[in-house]
Amino acid sequence: MSAPLFAIEPHPHPVEASVREGMIADPGFGRTFTDHMAMVRYVEGKGWHDARILPRGPLSLDPAAAVLHYAQEIFEGLKAYRLDDGAMALFRADANARRFNASARRMAMPELPEELFLESCRALVRADAQWFPPVEGGSIYLRPFMFASEVFLGVKPSAEYLYLVIAAASGNYFKSGAPAVRLLVSEEDTRAAPGGTGAAKCGGNYAASLRAQREAIARGFDQVVFLDAAERRFVEELGGMNLFFVFEDGSIQTPPLDGTILPGITRESLITLAREEGLTVREERYAIDQWRADAQSGRLTESFACGTAAVVTPVGSVTGRDWSFAIGSGGPGQATQRLKQRLVDIQRGRAADAHGWVQRIGG
Ligand SMILES: *Cc1c(COP(=O)(O)O)cnc(C)c1O
What we know:
CATH superfamily of the largest domain: D-amino Acid Aminotransferase, subunit A, domain 2
Bound molecules: pyridoxal-5'-phosphate
Shape: globular
């Protein structure tokens, strides 16, 4: 099947080369935006149409646009890399396309043909290829998203949507050896309840997590770890990253995808790689009290969080209402480091890609 065509409207005044080079020398994360964006419109009865790459800029929205009132919005996050041979590639973008549609179904939004999702990402990266940071570990972070744009205050699924992709030059999240994060257990707020939207990548889940995250930062922690909403007992995930536990016997555990956890593509990739190494991986619930007991007894040796942005981040300590425990010695443990390296080597085209995860963009 031939790729859907995106009309290209080049930016009349792209960022000047010398300015851009300064920006991408130290891009940080999520703030150094490229010159263009992708956009596709949807209207009920007409379907998806008007696919374009256009100059990045503000949107004009009617104040009654449904998303501003009822939060019908979903998003994705993925990275484009330059491989060591210079080619541009996406990592498992087909999995992002499928997850985007799973999120769309949960939020009563129209599905986007997978090939349209993929081509929107490719066409944008081609248009902004000069934005790849020249630094080790540099990438272009892509943020596809879709929201309800119908002008109507009645409560029903919108009949009109906008799909966009914006892109940001992105540095190596952690330059040398990821520092371990300090986690605060959210005692008050939960992120997702059974039957809710925890498995959908929607802005609303993030909005619900911000109060706990703000409190954690104010108290000197890095991230919040959320517990299950029903019993407040089982470890679920961080606001935007999945969690893994590594045991003394070499086995690995991660919470199961029971509908309240976001099915991370990094999570799934690491499970696959760990099983290929012959490690036992359990997708089973893990109680917060057990985590604490296992860390203190030495049965648990490492814990890490994972997601597209930082890939793998070691957990250094976990704090609850009146207790706290440390894990490891402050840096990444051996298993954490090894799994991360295997994944990064595949992403960069340095290790054999047995699963076809690295998809070259071409052009
Ligand atoms: C996006 C996300 C993740 C990580 O998913 P990846 O596909 O690995 O980037 C984990 N948890 C939540 C809540 C997320 O939104």
